[in-house]
């Protein structure tokens, strides 16, 4: 009996506040918009028969007719993929440096990577507004050095979004790669060098393949949340950047079109299933390899 | 022998500069006396004063704190229960669905979580306010807590609990007296994580909060949408300061206890 209660309480909680809400989104995505409160029809009050009859794929058709939506999905995919790659370029050398650092530095370096995690995400994104704006600190610095003669427009462009994503998600990339590099046996590299590899070839042929799982995990941990990102494109990307999280938010709050917003959400989730399943597989393979 | 080359040091220096410079600049410019945030006009603490006199910010901070304390405590309870079930209960009906529901919220985009919860609350006619934010935050942070706690439970030696049962403890006492003290660090870490997630959440709270329950991130958001403001810089500095002190204190405490544990182990060895 007690065991039953132990399972039932968290189970019921998640059913009520995670699964059912999601089913509601799915149902509303098949409903019609209505000038009512709530602004969609039919609702449960209309009876079950009317509820089923009123459902159709109209909202999904609508998403294909307006090119705003597929452009937003494509541009989200592109921004998420490219910024994941950039995060890897910045994160790998850092993780590598950490793994080579003297034992007594490691705890501190680790803490320095984790500290931004605990700091407000919103504030970390906001910090870049003052740096990247036209009269911002970066432009002031570049003008002062004399590298440029006119301020660069970075804020409210996709470039600012890339910087924002790399900056905020960098710890997600560093931690799994560091974990993989830290477990690596250094004598393998020495062996490769003894056998005539240059340091660079040894790095490519030994270190990179051995940290492959860390790289894959890190890339998914950046790509998946970056795809649905809302705060970064809204704050740094301005009107020039199209990302699906922002479109969903605006569709819901500004246009008040709940059925279309729900349809946008359903498709975003379908797109996300692929990387999530791949990520799970990678994690499982890794867990089995460790056994 | 590990070699830390000049290249490694450069990568670390540039990398950490990239991670910390924006926050350092934010802190410095919060003491700028000019309203124009990018022009340095001398040292001043006036923005801290005007921040602390701003009723709306104080109200929002109070709402946020209440939500964070309640939701992280509930999330810790539910998350620990869920972790215990996942690790110890073996097979039961709907186990796959259960573990799926634990992991899915971790990767769910916040806009979808927020939207779906709002549609639920409107569907059942629950007025948006502190209660709805607490329910939403508890739901996603309990999943984080359960992941943290279950990683600790997996490495926990079950025979200790069995020994307690053999010695006459009932299940609840065995959990309270044996299991809980051992997994306590993970439970505390889970609570802290849930607390921070709740303090930090903007997107989900924007969906499920009502007009009378503005949280601090929502307040910050509506201010920063219009650009950089010195009051927000001051507020950010306060928040960064609290987090830094907290994290450093926590790491010193855990380092001390690790050293103490090591010393105990050594003494025990010598005694043998």
Report on the architecture of this protein.
The complex is a heterodimer of chains A (291) and B (272). The radius of gyration of chain A is 24 Å and the shape is globular. Chain A has helices at residues 2-29, 48-53, 58-65, 67-100, 103-118, 121-132, 137-145, 158-183, 187-194, 199-210, 212-227, 231-237, 244-253, 258-290; strands at residues 32-33, 40-41. In chain A, 43% of the residues are buried. The model of chain A has no long low-confidence stretch (mean pLDDT 86). In chain A, a hairpin with a 6-residue loop joins strand 1 (32-33) and strand 2 (40-41). In chain A, strands 1-2 form a two-stranded antiparallel ribbon. With 291 residues, chain A is mainly alpha-helical. Chain A has 14 helices and 2 strands. Chain A folds into 2 domains: 1-60, no CATH class; 66-290, MetI-like (MetI-like fold, Orthogonal Bundle), CATH 1.10.3720. With 272 residues, chain B is mainly α. Chain B starts with 5 loop residues before the first helix and ends with a helix. The longest helix of chain B has 42 residues, at 230-271. Chain B is built from 11 helices and no strands. Chains A and B meet through helix 1, helix 4, helix 5, helix 6 and helix 11 of A and helix 1, helix 3, helix 4, helix 5 and helix 6 of B.
């Amino acid at each position: 009996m007690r065991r039953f209660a132990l399972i039932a309480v968290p189970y019921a909680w998640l059913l009520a506040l995670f699964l059912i809400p999601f089913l509601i989104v799915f149902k509303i995505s098949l409903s019609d918009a209505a000038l009512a409160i709530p602004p969609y029809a039919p609702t449960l009050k209309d009876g079950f028969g009317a509820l089923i009859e009123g459902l159709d794929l109209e909202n999904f058709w609508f998403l294909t007719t307006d090119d705003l939506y597929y452009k937003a999905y494509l541009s989200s995919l592109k921004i998420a993929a490219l910024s994941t790659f950039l995060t890897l370029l910045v994160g790998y050398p850092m993780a590598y440096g950490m793994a080579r650092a003297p034992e007594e530095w490691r705890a501190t370096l680790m803490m320095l990577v984790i500290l931004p995690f605990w700091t407000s995400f919103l504030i970390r994104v906001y910090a870049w507004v003052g740096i990247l704006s036209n009269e911002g600190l970066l432009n002031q610095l570049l003008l002062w050095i004399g590298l440029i003669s006119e301020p660069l427009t970075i804020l409210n462009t996709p470039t600012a979004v890339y910087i924002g994503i790399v900056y905020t998600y960098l710890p997600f990339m560093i931690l799994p790669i560091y974990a993989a590099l830290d477990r690596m046996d250094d004598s393998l590299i020495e062996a490769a060098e003894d056998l005539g590899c240059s340091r660079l070839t040894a790095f490519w042929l030994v270190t990179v393949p051995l940290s492959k799982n860390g790289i894959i995990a890190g890339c998914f941990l950046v790509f998946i949340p970056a795809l649905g990102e809302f705060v970064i494109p809204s704050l740094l990307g301005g009107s020039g950047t199209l990302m699906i999280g922002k479109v969903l938010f605006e569709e819901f709050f500004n246009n008040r079109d709940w059925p279309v917003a729900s349809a946008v959400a359903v498709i975003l989730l379908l797109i996300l299933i692929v990387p999530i399943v791949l990520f799970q597989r990678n994690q499982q393979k890794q867990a089995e390899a460790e056994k | 022998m590990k070699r830390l080359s000049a290249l490694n040091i450069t990568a670390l220096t540039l990398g950490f500069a990239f991670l910390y410079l924006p926050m350092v600049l934010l802190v410095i410019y919060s003491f700028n006396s000019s309203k124009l945030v990018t022009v340095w006009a001398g040292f001043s603490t006036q923005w801290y004063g005007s921040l602390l006199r701003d009723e709306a910010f104080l109200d929002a901070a109070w709402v946020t704190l209440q939500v964070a304390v309640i939701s992280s405590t509930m999330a810790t309870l539910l998350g620990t229960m869920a972790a215990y079930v996942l690790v110890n209960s073996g097979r039961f009906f709907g186990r796959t669905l259960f573990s799926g529901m634990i992991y899915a919220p971790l990767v769910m985009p916040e806009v979808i979580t927020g939207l779906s919860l709002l549609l639920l609350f409107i569907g059942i006619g629950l007025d948006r306010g502190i209660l709805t934010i607490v329910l939403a935050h508890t739901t996603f942070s309990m999943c984080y807590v359960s992941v943290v706690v279950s990683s600790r439970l997996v490495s926990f030696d079950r025979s200790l609990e069995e020994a307690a049962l053999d010695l006459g403890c009932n299940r609840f006492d065995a959990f309270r007296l044996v299991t809980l003290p051992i997994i306590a660090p993970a439970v505390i870490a889970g609570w802290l994580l849930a607390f921070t997630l709740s303090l930090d959440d903007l997107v989900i709270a924007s969906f499920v909060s009502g007009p009378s329950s503005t949280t601090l991130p929502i307040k910050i958001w509506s201010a920063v949408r219009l650009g950089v403001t010195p009051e927000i810089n001051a507020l950010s500095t306060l928040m960064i300061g609290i987090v830094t002190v907290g994290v450093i204190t926590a790491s010193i405490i855990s380092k001390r206890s690790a050293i103490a544990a090591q010393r105990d182990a050594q003494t025990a060895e010598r005694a043998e």
